[in-house]
């Protein structure tokens, strides 16, 4: 099996509850959404392998990725994107010789069903102001995805909410209410330039639903990938 990748690299996790753990990142290209703050290229003919220091032509084979996974002494393998759920079959075809960590926009429930075996889920709750279309359907699918990949004794699932400068507090609280029983906590992640005061006010209310932390993207401050 093969998949289109943007890059493969080792670094620390820079977002959410697992900030600082060492991971091997497998970044897929392609996404079903179109958030205005997205910084991931849509596609690339070449995959940059920073571990092997090589440029490889897309699509990349399962065996190539498996070898890197097997050789990596890391906390976990982070599947990110783009949207990794679009590549659920590719991920399923890999052997889990290290824990698997899924970073997803949580909008593709049928694909999510295939990845119940992952060990960590960092799932997004998108806000309307992200600029995505058909928001109601996106939200319904998000709740379904969290139900499918919910936090269990074997799988650690949390929800990340990227907060643009403007957001509707009531709407976020209503959506979080639908998700809270499937996660061990929420992370409020400000987009650069967002007003912290408003975010701290939202945190005060969300704490009543579940553990809620305000955590920016740390890898950008550290200047690492
Ligand atoms: S879900 Fe992620 S990868 Fe997809 S458009 Fe939004 S920010 Fe980009």
Quick description:
With 225 residues, the chain is an alpha/beta fold. 27% of the residues lie in helices and 26% in strands.
Write the layout of secondary structure elements.
Layout: E1 2-3, E2 5-12, E3 22-28, E4 46-49, E5 54-57, E6 60-61, H1 62-71, E7 76-80, H2 88-92, E8 100-104, H3 109-112, E9 120-124, H4 135-148, E10 156-163, H5 169-179, E11 186-190, H6 196-206, E12 212-214, H7 218-222
Parallel strand pairs: 2-4, 3-7, 7-8, 8-9, 9-10, 10-11, 11-12
Antiparallel strand pairs: 1-6, 2-3, 4-5
Bound molecules: iron/sulfur cluster.
The helical percent reads 25-40%
Q: Can you name the CATH architecture?
A: Alpha-Beta Barrel
N- and C-termini, Cα separation:
27 Å
Question: Which geometry do the CA atoms define?
Answer: globular
* Overall structural domain count: 1
Q: Which ligands occur here? A: iron/sulfur cluster
Q: For the largest beta sheet, what order do the strands appear in spatially? A: 5-4-2-3-7-8-9-10-11-12
Global Rg:
17 Å
Beta-strand percentage? 25-35%
What is the third-level CATH name, the topology?
Answer: TIM Barrel
Largest sheet: 10 strands, mixed
Helix/strand-derived category reads alpha/beta
Poorly predicted residue ranges: none
Individual helix count: 7
CATH first level: which class? Answer: Alpha Beta
SSE string, helices as H and strands as E: EEEEEEHEHEHEHEHEHEH
| Average pLDDT number | 94
- Give the number of DSSP strands: 12
Query: CATH homologous superfamily - what is it?
Result: Aldolase class I
């Amino acid at each position: 099996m093969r998949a289109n990748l943007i890059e493969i690299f080792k670094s620390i996790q820079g977002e959410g509850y697992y900030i600082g753990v060492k991971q091997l990142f497998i970044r897929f290209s392609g996404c079903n959404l179109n958030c205005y703050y997205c910084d991931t290229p849509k596609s690339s003919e070449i995959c940059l392998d920073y571990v092997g220091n090589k440029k490889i032509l897309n699509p990349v084979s399962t065996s190539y990725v498996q070898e890197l996974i097997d050789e990596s002494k890391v906390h976990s393998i982070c599947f990110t994107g783009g949207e990794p759920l679009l590549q659920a079959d590719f991920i399923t075809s890999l052997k889990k010789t290290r824990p698997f960590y899924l970073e997803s926009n949580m909008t593709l429930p049928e694909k999510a069903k295939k990845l119940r075996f992952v060990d960590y889920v960092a799932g997004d709750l998108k806000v309307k102001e992200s600029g995505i279309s058909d928001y109601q359907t996106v939200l319904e699918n998000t709740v379904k995805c969290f139900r499918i990949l919910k936090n269990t004794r074997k799988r650690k699932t949390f929800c990340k909410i990227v907060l643009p400068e403007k957001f509707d507090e009531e709407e976020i609280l209503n959506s979080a209410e639908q998700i809270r029983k499937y996660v061990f906590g929420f992370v409020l992640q400000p987009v650069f330039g967002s007003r912290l005061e408003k975010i701290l006010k939202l945190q005060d209310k969300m704490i009543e639903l579940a553990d809620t932390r305000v955590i920016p993207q740390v890898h950008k401050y550290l200047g690492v990938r």
